[in-house]
Amino acid sequence: MNNPGTLTLVLGGARSGKSAFAEQLARDSGLKRIYLATSQAFDDEMRARIDKHIKDRGDAWETVEEPTRIGDILSRKAACDSIILVDCLTLWISNLMMAEQSIEEAVSELLDTLSSLKGPVILVSNEVGQGIVPDNKMARDFRDHAGRLHQQIAAIADHVYFVTAGLPQKLK
Questions:
Q1: Strand ranges, E, within the chain
Q2: How far apart are the first and last CA of the chain?
Q3: For residues 38 and 86, is the Cβ–Cβ distance under 8 A?
Q4: Is residue 92 over pLDDT 60?
Q5: Is 57 left (phi over 0), alpha (psi -120 to 50) or beta?
Q6: For 92-116, b where at least 16 C-beta lie within 10 A, e where not — what string?
Q7: What does residue 35 show for φ and ψ, rounded to 5 degrees?
Q8: Are 163 and 18 in contact (CB under 8 A)?
């Protein structure tokens, strides 16, 4: 896991245990831990959630909050002596969509960045393609963007896990 440039993708549904599993992978690496959070606090409830997550992780983690420019943070922070956990890619896609940024360009930039990093990265994302077809265009676009992103990252990742009910299954 802690080889330079090792890329791990952790997928799962909401409250599946994927983030806890990814955090354990990062702790097990023995490296300095950086948590790259893509969530944004638009209300008091979300700010309280974010603050609780930061507190629960403790001082052993450096937390960086960035809703859209995750490639920039990865490029600046990736190093052989640290591991970066990005949580999560589906929120990142939502943020890009809400900011009316090109998903295709952002994904291309992220894939280019991931292929050139000097330190290990764990990417967490929600698997959203196993339910019914959404009833509106924006939701269908979101599902399609997430599905394509997951396929592209899985193709280049060293390790891919799917977490269900707290149980990780290694896919790759």
A1: 7-12, 32-37, 61-65, 82-87, 121-126, 159-164, 167-170
A2: 13
A3: yes
A4: yes
A5: alpha
A6: bbbbbeeeeeebeebbebbeebbee
A7: -105, 110
A8: yes
> What digits encode the pLDDT tens for the residues 36-71?
999 888 888 988 888 888 888 888 999 999 999 999
pLDDT for res 143: 95
Q: Is 150 among the catalytic positions?
A: no
**How distant is the alpha carbon of residue 124 from its chain centre?**
3
Q: How far apart are CA 30 and CA 41, in angstroms?
A: 30
- CATH number of the domain at 7-170, please? 3.40.50.300
- Each residue of 3-39: pLDDT tens digit? 557 999 999 998 999 999 999 999 999 999 999 999 8
- Cβ partners under 8 Å of residue 90, min gap 6: 125, 126, 128, 142, 146
Sequence-distant (6+) residues with CB within 8 A of 62 are 32, 33, 34, 35
C-alpha to C-alpha distance for 5 and 49, rounded to whole angstroms? 31
Token pair, residue 35, equals: 């948590």
Domain boundaries, the chain: 7-170
Its sign, for the CA torsion 153, 75, 158, 35, is negative
